[in-house]
Amino acid sequence: MRVGCPKEIKNHEYRVGLTPGSVREYVAHGHDVIVETGAGAGIGADDNAYRAAGASIAKTAEEVFAKADMIVKVKEPQPGEWVQLREGQLLYTYLHLAPDPEQTRGLVASGVTAVAYETVTDDRGGLPLLAPMSEVAGRLSIQAGATALQKANGGRGVLLGGVPGVLPGKVAVIGGGVVGLHAAKMAVGLGADVTIIDRSIPRLRQLDDIFNGRVHTRYSTVEALEEECFSADMVVGAVLIPGAAAPKLVTREMLSGMKKGAVLVDVAIDQGGCFETSHATTHADPTYEVDGIIHYCVANMPGAVPVTSAHALNNATLYYGLQLADKGLKALVDDPHLRNGLNVHKGRITNRAVAEALGYEMAEPQIALKAA
Questions:
Q1: Final residue of a domain: which of 299, 315, 332?
Q2: What is the C-alpha separation between 224 and 33, in angstroms, rounded?
């Protein structure tokens, strides 16, 4: 199979779908790899590094899309990219379709077979291709939020760790999954007063054990959300319903009860955001203010640290990518966890959460693949 890797074109996105190390693995499996010139510049990998790994270099993205049987990316295809996709071609990348009807229409119209990193599962019920970027985003959320808290950036002017004689800042983390865990780790490491809010009692017990009493845990109710948001200097939205749009847990009305200059960091923004007042921002213009509250809603947070995040992502995606390259659609038939990643196939939506969010009739993946 010919595997293609175009350069990412989303605002300030420096990651790359295939590192030179991953290219070597595909080549070792007998596949041809074509990489757009400059695709790895953001991680310090020049065209010669890709040539040494066995790839050929394309002068344009158009050449990659035209020649490749499978496209490997990081972020969802942009309008200029999805029009280049075609039936019979595999797309392997993050998609986050539920809050993005325009992209969904584009992929349906193209006829492409689209496998989304964020809905591939594992034997433990986890999301192994989402986890590494959730780890990065969780840790970055505290770093970004702490910067936004500085007075010159519109924030309250609070140092999260405090100093002797001055109380530390308060951080509320909504959601105790991978993002929430890593956000809490960073916040605790800085010396902040941290509370994690979640609806799973077993998970709250697990988090209490992990942190050995260094964080507070609360069961998620409207009252608990209000109390924690009203007292917090920073609120991190770390909620995920796999494949579906994120629930709006913090309403605009709640902002009036928060401290002026407090910061909301919405890590769920790829899935539409978990704050009612959230809208996606970019690394070029990451924050905005609503009712005195600073919002940080960058939709590709891990793109800020591409060397770390691109290698972490490739470590996770390589195994399944090689299955797709080695076996084509049969890989989706053979592996139920990889099949859970199938979101679009030949003009049909094959993920239930996406279909329900956007009003499509869902095609069962096994039936759609069998028909193909």
A1: 299
A2: 52
**Residue 3, number of CB atoms within 10 A of its CB:** 29
How many angstroms separate the CA atoms of 67 and 34, rounded? 8
Note the pLDDT of residue 125. 86
Catalytic residue of the set 96, 182, 295, 345: 96
Task: Verify whether residue 32 is a known catalytic residue.
Answer: no
Same domain, 95 and 76: yes
The first and second tokens of residue 97, run together, are: 């379709």
Task: Note the pLDDT of residue 241.
Answer: 83
Residue 343 near residue 115 (C-beta atoms within 8 A): yes
Rounded CA gap, 12 and 9, in Å?
8
From the list 193, 270, 295, 345, the catalytic residue is 270
Q: Are both 38 and 142 inside the same structural domain?
A: no
Domain-ending residue, one of 299, 327, 352: 299
Structure token digits, residue 370: 């069998």
Q: Other C-beta atoms within 10 Å of 44: how many?
A: 11
Query: What local confidence, expressed as pLDDT, does residue 372 receive?
Result: 60
**Residue 32: strand pairing partners:** 2
**Structural domain boundaries, residue 262:** 131-299
CATH number at residue 214: 3.40.50.720
Asked if residue 247 lies in contact with residue 357, where contact means CB atoms within 8 angstroms, the answer is no
Q: Which residues of the chain have pLDDT under 70?
A: 372
216 given a catalytic annotation: no
pTM over 0.70: yes
pLDDT digits (tens, 9 = 90+) for 246-272: 899 999 999 999 999 999 999 999 889
Query: What is the residue type of 328?
Result: G
Cβ-based burial of 34 (10 A; exposed 0-12, middle 13-18, buried ≥19): buried
- Distance between CA atoms of residues 29 and 5, nearest Å: 17
Dist CA 108 CA 106 (whole Å): 6
Structural domain includes residue 126: no
List the strands of the sheet with 287-290, edge to edge.
Answer: 216-219, 193-198, 170-174, 234-237, 263-266, 293-296, 287-290
Decide if 271 contacts 241 (C-beta within 8 A): yes
